[in-house]
Amino acid sequence: MLVLERGGEMIWLWILAACGRPTDDYAVQIHGAGTDLSSIEAAPSPMVGRVELVRYRFWGSNLGYGLTGLFGDSPRADGMSFVVGSASFGYPASTAYDRVSAFLSPGPTQLGTCTVRPPAGDAAVEYVDVGDRVLLATPGQTGVSLVRDPSVHPRPAGESWYVGYGNKLLPLIQEHPHLPDTWTPGALWSVSFPGTLPPAESTIGAIPYPFNDGWVQLPQDLEGVTIEGSPVRTPNHGYSRTGEWTGEDDNVRYPGPFSAPMKVGWEPGRQAGNITLVIRLHGEGVEGTCGCASDCDEGFLCDEGVCVGEDGASWNVLAEVACTAADDGEFVVNPEDMAGVWAQLDWADVAGATLSVARMSESTAVVPDILTWNSKRIGDENNEVRLRASDVVVTRLEVP
């Protein structure tokens, strides 16, 4: 206690001493200390849009469309192959259009490395309308049309609203005599849109001029994917591997890199390039209400009145580890590559895990000028759009 006197007034000050404790050097370090950010992700460029086309193959047990980030998991979709496209445009230019995918973002820039990252976000922009569709097609006009959602400008005006393109599941069509292909490995597809002039009272930006100068090459087929030497394959629903009826699904899942190294193999590409591997950890998620187990689809349990997946919800991504490998046919993910995940979440929250293996192709294009909702012109600066095509194989990992 300290007593001071000021102008005849006694001031009593109480000084509290902290409890003493010994000091020392502790073996503590920051996760990622010393890491060069340029080795984790390429320096992103501000862009005004992103157009993507993906061929998915769900080769594992209890996989759902939630893996696309667009739908729920019920009913499950393991064994399915399909194509899905997505496009969005906005202003001002955002680095998220370059760095982040609507489906699966590329891995770190440095070959042979992995990085831990949180679930992907999206660009905080004002959306831009580019017409009624975005077309990805071969010169013969076989391809995929991503239609605008919503199809018309809503009324009343003055509301803030979303506009996007595609985001619908498409059948995988190849070499059909009467139907256009939706996926042609190695083909160079054009990217175009007609442009539009929205109603005068609209509160959304637009590109009024047609665009026909974009090109993206679909990647070579990703084939022969294996984990620890075992082929990644579709589940045999009700059949054994020899084709005999068993009435039960076989369990197609593979050991993950949580306690031992996981070696992933594939047929090397014909051209020098990269392979992206993404391990995702999934939490639980509600797929609907139920009164008993029979109210839920296969692969789901009735838990306190709601249907939940036995392997969690694939759309609920708690964290992911992304790796970039040379396209030479083999890569090993080690438990140490997962270390940073446990600083982000508790293992008890993890209900499932998946592995995505992807071969990607990217390019950029410069789109015409944008008009903002109040007719302000956004000129030639940073008018690039990211174009990306990905061939993705997804499978189920064991959660220890």
Structure at a glance:
The chain has 2 helices and 25 strands. Strands 3, 4, 5, 6, 7, 8, 9, 10, 11, 12, 16, 20, 22 and 25 form a 14-stranded mixed beta sheet that branches. A 4-stranded antiparallel beta sheet has the order 14-13-15-21, with no helix packed on it. The chain has a 3-stranded antiparallel beta sheet with strand order 17-19-18, with no helix packed on it.
Account of the protein in words:
- By secondary structure, this protein is mostly beta strands.
- The chain has one domain (46-397).
- Helices cover 2% and strands 39% of the residues.
- The protein has two helices and 25 strands.
- Strands 3, 4, 5, 6, 7, 8, 9, 10, 11, 12, 16, 20, 22 and 25 form a 14-stranded mixed β-sheet that branches. A four-stranded antiparallel β-sheet has the order 14-13-15-21, with no helix packed on it.
- The N and C termini lie far apart (58 Å).
- Mean pLDDT is 85; it is low at 1-34.
Keyphrases for this structure?
single chain; 400 residues; 14-stranded mixed beta sheet; 4-stranded antiparallel beta sheet; disordered N terminus
Provide the fold topology.
Layout: E1 2-6, E2 9-13, H1 37-40, E3 47-58, E4 81-94, H2 96-99, E5 113-117, E6 126-129, E7 133-137, E8 143-149, E9 164-171, E10 188-193, E11 205-206, E12 211-217, E13 226-227, E14 230-231, E15 262-265, E16 274-282, E17 286-289, E18 300-303, E19 306-309, E20 317-326, E21 330-333, E22 352-366, E23 370-371, E24 377-378, E25 384-397
Parallel strand pairs: 3-25, 6-11
Antiparallel strand pairs: 1-2, 3-4, 4-6, 4-9, 5-20, 7-8, 7-10, 8-9, 10-12, 13-14, 13-15, 15-21, 16-20, 16-22, 17-19, 18-19, 22-25, 23-24
